Amino acid sequence: MMKKAQHESIGLAILIILIIFALIFTLILVNHNNQADPKDNFIKLQQGSTMLDVFLRTTSRDCGLSMTELLQDCNDDKIVSCGVLGSCEYVKKEAEDIFGNTLRVWGTNYEFSVSEGSDTLFSLGSFCNSDKKSKTFLIPTKSGILSAKIDICS
Amino acid sequence: MNKKKSQLHILETIVVLAIFIIVVYLGFSFYTNLSVREIEDDQEENLQLKAINIAQKVSSFPEIRCSQENAVVDNCIDMLRLSSFLEVDGDYFDHFSFSKITVEEIYPHEQELELYNVPLEGHSQKITTNIPVSLFDPIKNEYNFGIIKTEVFSR
Q1: CB contact under 8 A, B27 and A22
Q2: Is B12 on the interface with A (CB under 8 A)?
Q3: Which residues are CB-contacts of B36 (< 8 A; sequence separation ≥ 6)?
Q4: How far apart are CA B105 and CA B120, in angstroms?
Q5: Is B104 helix (H, G, I), strand (E, B) or coil?
Q6: Which residues are bridge partners to A35 per DSSP?
Q7: pLDDT tens per residue across span A43-91
Q8: Which of A50, A61, A94 has its CB closest to that of B132?
């Protein structure tokens, strides 16, 4: 009788060990799937900073000024006009054009905003609900410091 | 009565053994699948890192990058240097391996320039990396918006 009970205990122990093994494998698999993609991380980090750096340096096609100069005018005198648009509307339109042909085409959600203190001059794209990588460039103007910020959503 | 009990006992042992073998088999096949997937993921990760490496090399390539008063301008390609580079028939396989590198102008005009193209016949994987870059025109003194598109191939 004692021997039979011992046998059943061993069976139960083996069953528990098998269940523990299955749990460990599942945990490894879940952890493995959650690992961040190194390329995606690099792209998100690089895209935000490079995109903004390159955009602000870009020469506008209609007035020959850089986007940084147009943003400075947008915050100060508002005397520059490119075609039929003022500096603020023009930068917004060109940013929409450039980011639309790059980030949107690549399926990357983004939010681009230009503000001075708590006043937002304009913003583009959609608000990031999840994790994001942000990059901010500060632009000195006569009336204060402008902040151009881009969020690349994960 | 005793014979029937023994038969039941044997049947019970067979069922337990069968279940045990099935569980071991399932565990083993699960482990094998996991290992194969890990190897595939490692291969893909290596290819991704290679794509990143090539993209970084291109954006800081001394033959084509911008400089002003001997200072390097980050994220910038000099278009005059690029057109001269395209005319030279250099061997860059050691740098770029099996890949295709194109410089695309996005703004103000759209144009595409092929920097390097050594495709891998019968490739099964292709990783594409896009990096924004300024395209400097030294004649007009203008910066255009472009991207460096790197496609890396692997079997």
Answers
A1: yes
A2: no
A3: none
A4: 26
A5: strand
A6: none
A7: 677 778 889 999 999 999 988 999 999 999 999 988 998 888 999 999 9
A8: A50
Looking at chain A, which residue has its C-alpha nearest residue B108? A61
Q: Cβ of A98 and B45 within 8 Å?
A: no
Q: What's the complex ipTM?
A: 0.77
| CA terminus-to-terminus distance, chain A | 63
* String of DSSP letters for B23-75: HHHHHHHHHHHHHHHHHHHHHHHHHHHHHHHHHHHHHT-TTTEEEETTEEEEE
Cβ contact B143–A59 (<8 Å): yes
Let me know: does A59 contact B142? Beta carbons within 8 Å: yes
Instruction: Count Cβ atoms below 10 Å from residue A121 Cβ, excluding itself.
Output: 17
CB B107 within 8 A of CB A101: yes
| 8 Å CB contact of A58 and B144 | yes
Sheet of strand B71-78, all strands in order from the earlier edge strand to the far edge? B65-68, B71-78, B125-137, B142-154, B99-107, B111-117
In the DSSP assignment, the letter for residue B124 is: S
Would you say B107 and A61 are in contact if contact means Cβ atoms under 8 Å apart?
yes
What's the CA gap between A16 and A4, in Å, rounded?
Answer: 19
Q: Is A147 helix (H, G, I), strand (E, B) or coil?
A: strand
To the nearest whole Å, the CA of B12 is away from the closest chain A CA by 12
Q: What are phi and psi of A144, to 5 degrees?
A: 155, -165
User: Between the CA atoms of B82, B83, B84 and B90, what dihedral angle is there, to the nearest 10 degrees?
Assistant: 70
Entry pTM: 0.77
The answer to whether residues A62 and A81 touch, using CB atoms and an 8 Å cutoff, is: no
Which structure tokens are listed for B87? 């005319």
Interface residue of B35, B39, B133, B143 to substitute, partner A, most A CBs within 10 Å: B143
Report pLDDT digits (tens) over B101-139.
999 999 898 999 998 999 888 888 888 888 899 999 999
